[in-house]
Design goal:
It is a single chain. Helix content is 3%, strand content 51%. The strands form three sheets. A seven-stranded mixed beta sheet has the order 2-3-11-4-10-9-8. A hairpin with a 4-residue loop joins strand 5 (39-43) and strand 6. The radius of gyration is 15 Å and the shape is globular. The protein is mainly beta.
């Protein structure tokens, strides 16, 4: 049996493919998938998704315009209960000292406290969440 790592309800994650490091993320076992905050999201005819990582509230965002291949358009039920069609990308993330390939949907999270949401598909079979803890990744 694999030993699962215990993580807190808020953790730090890096996305080297997007040049984002030590990004605060909310661990949300109620969310199916991962999501990241970005602006000016659009998909062109060639299947490339373009977006901007710029947000005055979240200082890790450097204002860079990013263009990456679209992984898929995905129906996602947002926190307000409405179903949205969101573009998603497949990227490498670094979490708890290990690299993982994962899918992240792109959305406007400007009204949310954390720019990144880590959902249960990423967590499954690898991590257990202790909601009384935070930032256990910083203790490595």
């Amino acid at each position: 049996m694999l030993k699962k790592k215990i993580i807190g309800c808020t953790e730090v994650i890096s996305i080297p493919d997007l040049q984002l490091y030590d990004l605060d993320a909310k661990v949300d076992t109620g969310a199916d998938s991962n999501a990241i905050h970005c602006d000016d999201i659009h998909v062109d005819k060639e299947g490339i998704v373009h977006f901007k990582l710029l947000d005055e509230v979240h200082t890790a965002y450097h204002g860079k315009k990013v263009s990456v291949p679209l992984y898929q358009m995905k129906r996602v039920k947002s926190s307000n209960g409405k179903v949205q069609l969101r573009p998603s990308i497949k990227v490498k993330v670094n979490f708890f000292g290990k690299d993982y390939m994962t899918v992240i949907s792109l959305t406007d999270r400007s009204d949310m406290k954390y720019p990144m949401l880590i959902g249960r598909k990423f967590l499954a079979n690898k991590f257990l969440v202790d909601v009384s803890q935070e930032y256990l990744t910083k203790q490595l």
